[in-house]
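Q: Start with the shorter request: fold the first protein.
A: Done. Sequence, then structure:
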Amino acid sequence: MENKPKNQLNIELSEEIAEGVYSNLAIITHSPSEFVLDFVKLMPGAPKARVKSRIIMTPQHAKRLFKALADNLNKYESSFGNIKDVGNETMPPFTMGGPTAEA
């Protein structure tokens, strides 16, 4: 008999997903029932960029992600120093309709 802790979750990661997708721009839109995170790879000088990955989640999960990301950023900066915020001056303005925020 195995002694697994209660509520243990076994998460599988395929080789394809483990490779990851590079993104240097995130576009976040939302409705009352969901948040949509589009991850884009923007290349310098290119007139067009393509969404490389889209994640859709509930507002509750978006808030949990926000808290987890904030916690990890604090841990990162404690270990490696402050991350310089470059602001939006390097990103071109664009909209996709609906409420939009960039990160």
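Q: Next, the second protein, separately.
A: Sequence, then structure:
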Amino acid sequence: MEITPEQFAQIEHCLPTQRGNVSLTNLQVVNAILYVAEHGCKWRGLPKRFGNWHTIYTRMNRWAKAGVLDRMFEELQRSQVVRIRIEAVSLDSTSIKVHPDGTGALKKTALRPSASPEVDGTPRFIWLPRMLEQP
């Protein structure tokens, strides 16, 4: 989901004015935020067409703390550009490393069969099909 420049003009007053030498417009940042919210990808997984993921994340983080994102999404919904109800948005890329024993992998304790059956000993289970009796 991306918004057009005409749709962006309806919510532009909610966003702070850009100052100085900025590489990304507010429209590009809004479209990147909508992409992450829709696809649930990590920030590093943003397509290159949106620009540097770290720049987008930093601006989004600043906007979230200042309440800009709340005002923007309210205006997007009021103008029927976005027709979803957002109760909670969590954008996080935290990962926790698990010890190999905690992943449920099988332990390497299986006995290897040898070339000679006498060394292996008698098998513990033998399955033989039973013949059904003829009526």
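Q: Describe the second briefly.
A: Residues 5-78 form one domain. DSSP finds five helices and no strands in the chain.
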